[in-house]
Amino acid sequence: MQVYIAQIFPEIGINETFDSGAVTARSMAESWDNQWLDLLQNNTSNNLYGALTNLGIFLAVGTLLFFMMQWLKDVINSEYSRPISGLIWPFIVVLFLSNTGNGSLLSSLTLGVRNLINTVNQQVVSTADAEQTYQQALNMSLAEEVAGSLLRPCQSLNGEQQTQCLARASDQIDNLWREYRNLYGNRIWIERLENQVSSLKFNTGNISDITFNSLLGNTAQTRIKNFLISLQYAFQNLIEATMLLIAALGPLALGASLLPVGGKPIYAWFTGFFAAGITKISFNIIAAVTAAVIINGPAENPNANPDLMWFIIFVGILAPVLSLAVAGAGGFAIFSAINNSTALIKNRI
User: Fold this and answer.
1) 131: exposed, middle or buried (C-beta count within 10 Å: 0-12, 13-18, 19+)?
2) Which end of the chain is more exposed for a tag (fewer CB within 10 A), N or C?
């Protein structure tokens, strides 16, 4: 879920900041896509994935000895059906680890599963966040800080100087409301925040610290919000990096799968990769649904002035924890189902 947040300072134009945020978000998404292609498809004879594939082949050759020992034991015990079915695994390992320079069958399958997860994720985001409620909730929470960065320098001035400072700052902030309306239309929360800034602009006499903080918050809240928002961005990139790491370790998991054990490493690898995808999707669902509660509730009430600090804490800390818990439970269920299915198939063959 890409979000464009305006972090505005007096010397930076608001329109340029919005455009820069959009370009940065698109650039990050494209950079991750290119990294996946570079690792799994482009020149895999010489890159990291190629080296790990060679190591996976080495592991397969090493574990083949244990496989053949178990296979011969089953033959000696006259369990012919199981040895015959067991011969499928070496062929699978050889087929999936064959590196052509443009990726192996395993790398192509891994990239395909990643693209499928991303497609499902985009469908979830477009459905659950059709009105960009997540972006609106974050921007509504940060609008006070954006306005504060322009208005707070006027706090130390007096008389006519303060009046002129507030007027200039208000004119700059008008561009922010214009950009918000271009993105989200005429929303009640935009009008409410605009009225709050206007009340400062047209206030007579010196404005107290209490008045500023009640409308714009304080610098401590600004730092905490920026940290938590950066934390949820870091979590989203961590998920992508985790999926890429698991993908890179695929050849090792497949190469070690010739060991004569019940729970093969390739099952754990697939479960981990799928669990990372569930984490990504779960986080976006949690964030979108929670944001919809805000945007369709207090944000539509012109008399409400909700403190959205709880939402920033939620998306920065609690939502990642909850999505990891859901993915962990789902991954364990998938791993158990695969093991039980494998045992059932072996008993029937």
Assistant:
1) middle
2) C
Compute how many other C-beta atoms are within 10 angstroms of the C-beta atom of residue 137.
Answer: 26
Instruction: For residue range 192-246, list pLDDT tens digits in order.
Output: 888 877 777 776 455 555 555 555 656 677 778 888 888 988 998 999 999 999 9
Q: What is the DSSP string of 149-166?
A: HHHGGGGG--HHHHHHHH
Q: Could you tell me the CA-to-CA distances from 278 to 27, 193, 236, 274 in Å, in that order?
A: 24, 37, 12, 6
pLDDT of residue 187: 87
Compute the distance between CA of residue 345 and CA of residue 65 in angstroms, rounded to an integer.
24
Report CA 19 to chain centroid distance, whole Å: 21
CA atoms within 13 A on the CB side of 106: 30
Do 304 and 298 meet the contact criterion of CB atoms below 8 Å apart? yes
Tokens of 243: 């999926």
Residues of the chain with pLDDT under 50: 4-12, 204, 344-349
Q: Give 250: exposed, middle or buried? Use CB within 10 Å, 0-12, 13-18, 19+.
A: buried
Mean confidence (pLDDT) of the chain:
77
Residue 348: the pLDDT is 47
Torsion-angle region of residue 338: left (phi > 0), alpha (psi -120 to 50) or beta?
A: alpha
Please report, as a single letter, which amino acid is at residue 239: I
pLDDT of residue 247: 92
Rg of the Cα atoms in the chain: 28
User: Tell me, what amino acid is at 190?
Assistant: I
Residue appearing with tokens 């994935």: 49
In the prediction, which pLDDT does 321 show?
Answer: 92
Which pLDDT score, from 0 to 100, does residue 83 have? 57
d(CA 236, CA 323): 11
| Contact by Cβ (8 Å): 308, 140 | yes
Task: Give the tokens for residue 311.
Answer: 């939402």
C-beta atoms surrounding 291 within 10 Å: 26
CA 60 from chain centre, in angstroms, equals 34
